[in-house]
Structure formats: C-alpha cells, structure tokens
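This part of the workshop introduces the protein records we will be handling. The question running through the whole workshop is how a given chain folds. To make this concrete, we reproduce a full record directly below:
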Amino acid sequence: MLAIALVDRIGSGLWASVSVLYFTYVSGLSVAQIGTLAATAGAIGIAGAPIGGHLADRFPLTRVLITVQLLRALASFALLAADHYALLLVCSAVGGLGDRASSVLTRLYATRIAGPDRVRYQAVHRTLANAGWAVGGLAAAAALTLGTTTAYQGLLAGDALSFVASALLTLRCAEPPSRARTVTDSTATTPTTKPTGPWRDRTYLAYVATETVLFLDDAVFKVGLPLWIAHASHAPHGLAPLLLVLNNVMVVALQVPLARFGATTAAARALLIPLSAAFALGGATMALSATGSTVTSTLLLTAAAVAFTLAEMLHATVSWELSVALAPETAQGTYLGVHGLAQSAQRSLGPLAVTAAITTGPLGWAAFGTVIALTCIVQHRLVRERLTRSPLSVGPVTVSEH
C-alpha cells in the first residue's frame, strides 16, 4: 500500500502542477471557465469521502479501492479525448469524486491492517506521498520545457497510467479484516439496536467541524503565501516557490520522527496544545512580515512557513489518530468518510479564508492564526469525555488480530 501511495502521488504531481496550463493552452478555456471547472470538481468531490467510506463498510475494501482507481484512470483518459466544455466538467467532477474516495479508502486500509501502529504508518505514508509529489512535479517541470501540446497530453496520460498501476498493485494486497462486515451463524446473538451512525453522532460531527478549521494550513501554502509575498510583503517574489520546497523537505525529513509523539490516543490529543502554539506563531510571523525590510520580511516569512509546516505535520498525526479513536470499529469506514468531508470542505473554504486575511492586512493574519489556535483548544476539550469514557483506539484486541 505504501508503494501504491508513491505511484499515485507521482502521477498526481505530474498533473496537479500543469492542470491549469493544460486547460488554458490545450483545451482553450478562459479563466472563468477554468475557475468553474475547478469549483465544480471540488464541490462534487466532497461527496467522494462519505460514499467511499460507506461502501467500504459493506463490500470488500480492496475491490472498492480498485474500482475507484480505475474510475480515476477512466476520468483522466477521458479528459484527453474531451473536446467540449460539458464533457470536461463531467470528467473533472468524476476525477474529483474518485480522488476524495481513494484518500479515505487507503486510510481505512491502513487503520484495519496496522492496528496500534497506524500512527507510524501514517507518518511513513505522508513521507512517501510528499516524495512522490516532488518527483512528479520535477518531471512535469522538465516536460514543460518543451511547451508542446504533446507534452501536456503526455503528463495527463502519465497521471491516468499511475491510477491503472495503483489498481494493479492493489490486486496484490490482502483484504484486511473488518468488524463492519461479519459472518454470523444461527447461534449468534443479533443486536437489538443498530450503532449510531456519524450523522447522528453530535460529538463526531462537532469534531469534524473543528477539523475543517485545522485543515486551513493547506491553503496557506497553495494560496496565502504566494499572494501575500506578491502583494503585501517586501520579500522577493522568487521566495514563494522556495518556501513550498522548504515545506516539502521538512515533511519528508521530519514527519516520521514527529509521529512518535502521537503514538497513542492520549498523546495525540496532548499534541493539540503545541499545535495551537504553532498556528498562533505562524499567524503572528505572517502579520509581522509586512512591516520589515526585504531581509526582515524574508526571514519572517521563512519562520511562518516553518511554523505552518510544523502545524501541518502535528495535525496530520493528531487527525489520523483521533478520527479513528472516536469511531466505533463496526462503522469505521462510514465515520472516516464523514471525517473526510473536513478536508474536502477546506478546499473550498481555505482560499476564501486566506484571501480574507490578506485583504484585511497584518491584523487579518494575526486573527487567522488565533482562530485556528483557539479551535485546537476547543477540540482538545471536545474529545476529552468521549476518549476517557471509551478508549476506542487501542482496545484489548486490536483490529489486526481478528
């Protein structure tokens, strides 16, 4: 499954960095049309996480994952042949749906297989995923030096083939044991009540709402930093891609070592306090970067990138563990699918939040960091009673032992 993650992200790296250019120069779309295309794919993609999780609780996980990977491949190959805007919309929407579903399914697979070692697995997974993005991005940059239609189409075809390769590799993976799907005999006791689903679980829904806020760090690197450097700071514009490289290098180098601080549910919850401090520091340094000289602004923006990257890594560890620990073993897929809505929603809300901070100025960034920091504290208190009452994360018998 780690090999699948690497192959998948190499393909995504090939396409993500050139998709806008492809739609501009190959498909001939306007800026408004590209924006509508991205918004539509993002909106429909939100449904992918709960749908994928729901299906995984009812059908063999590997079969569902293979189906989703082939669906993503089909959508990418169809983009190559699509010559009408409506078809491009449909293909992009299907691809977005499959992307969010596959994210939840691979996470659920790790949860069922790795058991109590899932936090370390998550750290290794993120390290390989970031490495894959970097390899794909470098390959895309090399291909773009040609600047031809064939080069753009080749990158999209490479993305599609990565999904086919992922599906073939998934065929080699054993089906993980699941408490959601069990076979009973005539002597088995039938439960008199069904477990409460995530849509009726107020604590879990509140937790997912706080997660939407904590995922906003993603928009800082994709939208916030580049726009802030270009319009409000005295730092050179060339700093923006360098900070993205810094983010990637830090994740590859530090995600696994940091994971040991959140190896248990209690430790993961405790990480919410330093996570709060990292978000507050990131917002403060972004605000101060607008007030200094070129050198000072550059140093402060670098410090902000380090703080937000640290927050990203800590939150990845916390989020992975708590989202599973708060879910009953008999409905992990459905619960993780609902948790996936947080990251999907952030893709729409994140750019709005960071552009609002940029428009407001230094006080906007200070408020941005403060709000996320306070949300960490709220989440720390929100999950306390549930985790104390029922330590679901690592019981006497783990999922992997069934």
Observations:
- Confidence is low (pLDDT under 50) at residues 182-193, 391-402.
